[in-house]
Amino acid sequence: MKFTNQKTFSVSISAILVVFAMSSTFLKFHPSTTESKANEAVVDRPHYQIEATYDDQNQVVKGKMKVDLPESRTEPQKEVYFHLYPNVFQNWKYNKESKPQKPGFIKIQNVKVDGNAVKQEVRNEIMKVSLPQELGKGKSARIEMDYTLQLPKGGTRLNTFKHTAFLAQWYPMLSVKDKEGWHNEPYTTVGDPFYTNMSDFDVTFHVPEGYQVISTAKDPITKKGGEIKLTQHQVRDFAAVITKDYQVVQGKSGNIQVNLWYLAGMDDVKEELHKAAVDGMKFFGERFGSYPYEEIDVVLGETGYGIAGMEYPGLVTSVPKAPSLKGEVPAVNVVAHELAHQWWYGVVGNNQAKEPWLDEGLTSFSEFLYMKKQKGENGDEWLKKVVTRTNQIHDSLHVHSAQKLYDYPDEVYGLMVYLRPTAMMFDLVGQIGEDKVMKIMSTYYQKFQYRTATTKDFIQVANEVSGKNLTSFFDQWLYFKANDSKNKKSAS
Ligand SMILES: [Zn+2]
């Protein structure tokens, strides 16, 4: 995601955060081969089948979901967890500015495992489904359930407005179980706590007359009303917008279909932002490696209080305009940021709750690089200030740049997690050259595509590709190691 300059960032560093918001001023396509290569291997991804009916009178989605769990499993398991994110909109415990006008929630019924009814336990946004038998290695299982989703009005990400339903984290989402156990990390408003594995999705919507669906999958653009069938394999999430309000500008970036969706009153930005999306997909594809899907949708509008844009696989949101030193300008930098997330988050995953810098830092660097190369907007002076300010923040709050999402006070999150790593990557360009840094990014992309990478993985790729030991470079930038030893010396 990307922030706006709203009150989320006030407190003592308001000045630099205004400039943060103003970062807007400068601030090989082979899909069939990558897809088919991936599909030849044993499919070890969950497979979701969702049948969803939208009631536009009551803003309710009735869903029937089947999830086939993959066979790959390192140890037997007795239960499975799901995130029920819509429940955070029931009793809003976050800042009052982002409180929905009308609450939302999700109710689950008729849970079955391999056809047998089982009990589920729901605690706020987490549901535990107990398995009737321990699920061993090499054994699949089908979990079925019905759900009723009441959409909030004025919600963050998940939302309804006019004749539009914005479906983000709108179905029970499987928790990830890895070496560390189950990841049932809680929701937050500042930052993205959503950590998921690659999955396959077959989604059928039933929508009222006149409505169309914009989604993570390749969308049937002219189809309105009735049954709309969508399929997308090998993605981390499935987002959709059900709407009667949006119009589209279509185009191609190489073989990728690029759709920009806009509302009435956005005519003055639609062409420029569509061009930015076409150019952005080409720019990142050439540098990092090809985008492996057929389509990308950019949906303009408000994502929620304090959020300028948000990324989902194959679909991103952006505000139409962002503040700059020249006043409000078309939000090219927000579009570039969210599109770069298709590489860092979408294809190369990471645990966003545990190491948010890894996707946000690389994405922010990609955005700044795009703005510099394509728009001639140089962020060097601004990034120098970021370094000074983040050094001060580290000294006073003892946070570094590679911590958990929950460890940061809201007002320093963007500086520590987005901007200091951006400054780090430009410093690396200065030290080893841009070609080498691009080679690091493209190697990391190739090596970890469809997987979950860690900070350690990224540093290892950087060391291998550069032929240098850059560990102390990253230690200093991310963990402030040199600062701490310097402080220790001066104190002793
Ligand atoms: Zn982001």
UniProtKB/TrEMBL annotation:
Cofactor needs: Zn(2+)
Cofactor note: Binds 1 zinc ion per subunit.
Zinc found in the keyword field: yes
Record keywords: Metal-binding, Signal, Zinc
Peptidase M1 membrane alanine aminopeptidase domain: residues covered: 278-477
Pfam families: Peptidase_M1
N-terminal signal peptide: 1-21
One term of GO molecular function: metallopeptidase activity
Binding residues annotated for Zn(2+), in chain numbering: 337, 341, 360
Regions annotated as coiled coil: none
Active-site residues, as the UniProt record annotates them: 338, 418
PANTHER family noted in UniProt: LEUKOTRIENE A-4 HYDROLASE
Protein name as it appears in the record: Peptidase M1 membrane alanine aminopeptidase domain-containing protein
Species the sequence originates in: Croceifilum oryzae
